[in-house]
């Protein structure tokens, strides 16, 4: 059963409460805090699945249809929303087959996929991992067998590509331009970890002041997404050109003028915040950061003409660094900022002075 094969690929992944619940877009997504469970406080740092999120993804990958959709365990029990055969608690284990969707708990609090021989694959709870376990028959309430079958290879380009994270509400399209039909939509903006196979130059797109003409092919959805909606720099490191895949094609030629995020570009993207700050003689020195683009830049405010600001960037957590990137001075008023710099997988800090030759103050590394 294809759904079982899919779910078992994720054995060992950390559970994430709310994971797998991007509206309209199945897949491992950013977890949330369950206010009733202190174990979940770290789940927003994970991109994975909760119990119904795992079942949703497994059956999507098996069928290319989001039959479970973005719903709770309880709601999928009350109204599955797809053609199915239902098995009752009284029928027991005998009629079940691998891939059947099993529900557990008074009030329905858990769901898993049946493996056979009394075993399930499940995402249990915060602080645990996706695992194979014995079915809890004392808590079993019934099961559904969807009436649908896979029609495509479950793992196209198996073993290739790398997971990157979305942001915002991207449209996944049939081709690498905005006039192409939308195949999938992320309706609620929850970040999803998508498998990026390759990237190529397509239509130039502008969002929130950022510009990018690079698009990425996502084999799990057979779709393209503009790199503007992938966290990180304009061209994703480690993801090859689509030219090496004859069935896809395309190159990265002409991708050198993008600003999301290119070294030395203007800090004009929305969603930035102050990651670190310090003061020097009444001035505030800030390291500004944008997690969407993985850009960072320095800003000094409340100063005077001649005050200096720059950023340092390090690939070894601040042991050594590239110094004085984007160096600039206040030329009028009391504020100035550097250009923005790629901070993907690196750490940076901002440094400023109260005028040339004055005291140097640097923020912490971030």
From TrEMBL:
<dbReference type="InterPro" id="IPR051794">
    <property type="entry name" value="PG_Endopeptidase_C40"/>
</dbReference>
<keyword id="KW-0788">Thiol protease</keyword>
<keyword id="KW-0378">Hydrolase</keyword>
<protein>
    <submittedName>
        <fullName>NlpC/P60 family protein</fullName>
    </submittedName>
</protein>
<comment type="similarity">
    <text>Belongs to the peptidase C40 family.</text>
</comment>
<dbReference type="InterPro" id="IPR000064">
    <property type="entry name" value="NLP_P60_dom"/>
</dbReference>
<keyword id="KW-0645">Protease</keyword>
<dbReference type="InterPro" id="IPR021224">
    <property type="entry name" value="DUF2690"/>
</dbReference>
<feature type="domain" description="NlpC/P60">
    <location>
        <begin position="1"/>
        <end position="152"/>
    </location>
</feature>
<dbReference type="Pfam" id="PF10901">
    <property type="entry name" value="DUF2690"/>
</dbReference>
<dbReference type="Pfam" id="PF00877">
    <property type="entry name" value="NLPC_P60"/>
</dbReference>
<dbReference type="InterPro" id="IPR038765">
    <property type="entry name" value="Papain-like_cys_pep_sf"/>
</dbReference>
